[in-house]
Amino acid sequence: MRNSIIVIKVKEVCLTVIKETTMKNILLFISITFAVNTFSQTTLIPDPNFEQELISLGYDSGSPDGSVPTANISSVNSLNVNMMNITSLTGIQDFTALTTLWCGGNQLTSLDVTQNTALSELNCGGNQLTSLDVSQNSALINLSCTNNQLTSLDVSQNTALTILHCIYNQLTSLDVSQNSALITLWCDYNQLTSLDVSQNTALSELNCSNNQLTSLDVSGAVSLTHLQCQYNQLTSLDLSQNTALTILYCNNNQLVCLNVKNGNNLNFVPPSYGPYFCAGFNPNLWCIEVDDVAWSNLWWWSIDPQTSFSTNCGNACSTVLGINELNTNTTKTLSKIIDLTGREIQYKKNTLMIYIYEDGTSERVIEFE
């Protein structure tokens, strides 16, 4: 009876040892299999020029064969493949740690960076892109997609964006209302008909020239120092709230009124460094509202012959619409200016004018030099 008990206990111990050994072998097998699979996993790179550059950078070896080891690229955080005659960046999705991608000056027609969620800087300018999806790149800070064929660009999910260059595309609209961190915006040479930067309080530099803008409200861009909006169809421009402004190009528009009276005119970049105030080629612009007439006459010569400076132009974008309104608490919207014969005229100093307001009221105004 005693021997039987001993045998049973020995059997139980043996079974336990066998079970533990089997489990260790299974776990070891799984680990080895996983390691082998990871080591042997490859990423397809169909473009030979792209793969050749990866070989040159040391991420692959030999001659282009259509793939690279995934383990060699998964930890790469910066990649520069500019001007390598690349037509496809297929395989870029496995660069999962990528924070900086430069792929400009190639022949890309499409680019998928939706898997590169760590991306903070993307330069894909000088390609043939017709669409660009950056909706998954919430870490993006700097985006340059100039010289492409983009007709639309959605940056609503890129709330960390501080620099956006989308020059020379075919954009008809651009919504930057969600990009409150935006500091620099270059969107010139597109087909924009409107642009709203009222939510971009950090915006310092805006170039929206060579578009089809008929209006531009920059009153909310209180940090604006540099504005280029030339070669559009603007009829009025009020910069009275842009107290940091030091550079302005608004030439070649259809301006009727321009208000630069913001208390900062004397801090404009000195003309010796270049004509940093340019308002010429606006044939209907007779008066520019400024801080100091004498100073503007001395330094701001890039205006049309018919244009003069005044501290009170009394037009639609004027800080003060008329002499009599200085003593009132209500603001009226000017409809037109006529002379004593009823003929519509432009604002002119030393001349008695009649202001007609949209509410139907009128008043006589004259300002002497």
Verbal overview:
- With 369 residues, the chain is α/β, with parallel strands linked by helices.
- Helix content is 16%, strand content 17%.
- The protein is built from 4 helices and 19 strands.
- Strands 3-4-5-6-7-8-9-10-12-14 form a 10-stranded parallel β-sheet, with no helix packed on it. Strands 11-13-15-16 form a 4-stranded parallel β-sheet. The protein has a 3-stranded antiparallel β-sheet with strand order 17-18-19, with no helix packed on it.
- β18 (353-357) and β19 form a beta hairpin.
- It is elongated, with a radius of gyration of 33 Å.
- The protein starts with a helix and ends with a strand.
- The relative contact order is 0.05.
- The model is unreliable at 1-19, 26-39 and 321-329 (pLDDT under 50).
Strand order of the largest sheet: 3-4-5-6-7-8-9-10-12-14
Overall average pLDDT: 85
Query: How large, in whole angstroms, is the Cα Rg?
Result: 33 Å
N-to-C CA distance:
129 Å
Global geometry:
elongated
**Which blocks of ≥5 consecutive residues have pLDDT under 50?**
1-19, 26-39, 321-329
Run of helices and strands: HEHEHEEEEEEEEEEEEEHEEEE
* Largest sheet report: 10 strands, parallel
Instruction: Name the structural class.
Output: alpha/beta
Helix content: 10-25%
Keyphrases for this structure?
369 residues; alpha/beta; 10-stranded parallel beta sheet; 4-stranded parallel beta sheet; 4 helices; 19 strands; elongated; disordered N terminus
